[in-house]
Amino acid sequence: MSVVDTLARLIAFPTVSTEPVVALAGYVAERCEAAGFRVERFVAPGEGKLNLVCSKGPRGTDGIVLSGHMDVVPTVGQPWSSDPFRLTERGSRLVGRGTADMKGFIAATIEALARLPTLERELVLVWTCDEEVGCLGSKDLVPKLADRPLPRLCVIGEPTSFRILRMHPGHTAVRILCGGKAAHSSKPDLGDNAITKAARVIDRLEGLAADWRRDVRFAELLERPFVVMNVATIQGGSAINIVPDHCVLEVGFRPLPGMVVEDLVRQLRERIGDLGAVELRRETPAMLTAAGGELEGLLRPDASAPGTGAASFATDGGNFAALGMESLVFGPGSIDVAHMADEYVDGGELHRAVDVVTGLVSRRCGQR
Ligand SMILES: [Zn+2]
User: Fold this and answer.
1) From the candidates 19, 130, 131, 346, which is the catalytic residue?
2) Can 71 be counted among the known catalytic residues?
3) Which of 19, 71, 140, 283 is catalytic?
């Protein structure tokens, strides 16, 4: 099978995060087993959800981890010019949902398995689910791997056009509930309007976001070197003639490495005061790996740009840090086309990815 055929197989599984990933995982496991890998399956919350850990070579020998997510973002409402779940060649472009983000890397890795030398150090492949909805798969997996010796170095094969990215902000989601008192709209003074209260909350959040913008960090790596905030959704009220007694806001913000999320949530609570109750909904950790490390040296010959950068998106690498893993984000395809209609990976880049993975693993885990 060629890497393009393998990618076509992977794309044909419509593993949008709301759907089961078990069929794709079964295929990936089968391919890894055929290459002599041990496959461990870790069931994750939700129907048909699981993470895979596939390994080869002597355990506990500190080789390398290669990781990617098996889920993709939805295609609904996007103007695709072909079936997103059928790989379509258009010139040098291989078009399909997940070609860049990030089944291309999974396909390249699977293809490289047959070319590897005898492994003197362990190669561990970690394929996760539910990454696109907040790195939930890796979050569930990490405590289950706490007792397993794992290599320290990890490549997250997200689409970076082979640039080396060593940090990214995290993502924290909170829900703010504004309560009130219902009344007939003809007598608003008898009620307490939850929506106008939410408007005051938003005003204060804007003030807090402005304060956060003044706390500049990682200016050499980030385009927006501060905590960014997004007031994402608002829901409230039930009828035109009722004073609303509830309004719910969903707010996301992106903590930088080294920041304590609880501190930021506390600041948010203090700013809002008794206008609303703040509930912490989800937390995806930031990632920071020191520059000039061993893995960076291993990737350098294949890097498309000098130096290192930052990703604006979160990855599983943030969760993996709890296992002592040092991750770099590095892979084929461009993030600019990920999540879009007619997402693609360049065919040449995909073939190169097979060589890159083969070379990287050979240098780290092969005979020395
Ligand atoms: Zn991704």
Assistant:
1) 131
2) yes
3) 71
Using CA of residue 323, residue 303, residue 354, residue 92, what is the dihedral sign? positive
Contact 314, 228 (CB under 8 A): no
Between the alpha carbon of residue 282 and those of residues 25, 98, 152, 170, the distances in Å are: 25, 24, 26, 11
Six-digit token string for 229: 């905030």
Question: What string of DSSP letters covers 203-264?
Answer: HHHHHHHHHHHHS---TTT-SS-S-EEEEEEEEE---TTEE--EEEEEEEEEPPTT--HHHH
Whether residue 131 lies in the annotated active site: yes
Q: Write out the two tokens for 25.
A: 């995982």
Task: Measure 189 CA to ligand 1 centroid, in angstroms.
Answer: 50
Segment 331-362, tens digit of pLDDT: 999 999 999 999 999 999 999 999 999 999 99
The structure tokens 């997510």 sit at 69
pLDDT in tens, 226-243: 999 999 999 999 999 999
How many helices, marked H, and strands, marked E, lie in the chain? 9, 18
Cα-to-centroid distance, 315 and ligand 1 (Å): 7
pLDDT of residue 131: 97
On whether the CB atoms of residues 104 and 93 are closer than 8 A, the answer is no
Q: For residue 101, how far is its CA from the centre of ligand 1 (angstroms)?
A: 5
In order of their start, the domains of the chain are: 3-168+285-365 (3.40.630.10), 171-284 (3.30.70.360)
Calculate the dihedral angle through the C-alpha atoms of 151, 153, 159, 162, rounding to the nearest 10 degrees: -130
| CB contact at 8 A, 357 and 66 | yes
Separation of 311 CA from ligand 1 center, angstroms?
11
Q: Single out the residue of 256, 257, 249, 217 nearest to residue 230, CA to CA.
A: 249
Q: Which of 82, 80, 125, 73 is nearest to 101 (CA)?
A: 73
CA of 69 to the centre of ligand 1 (A): 7
Indicate the pTM of the whole model. Answer: 0.92
CA of 164 to the centre of ligand 1 (A): 15
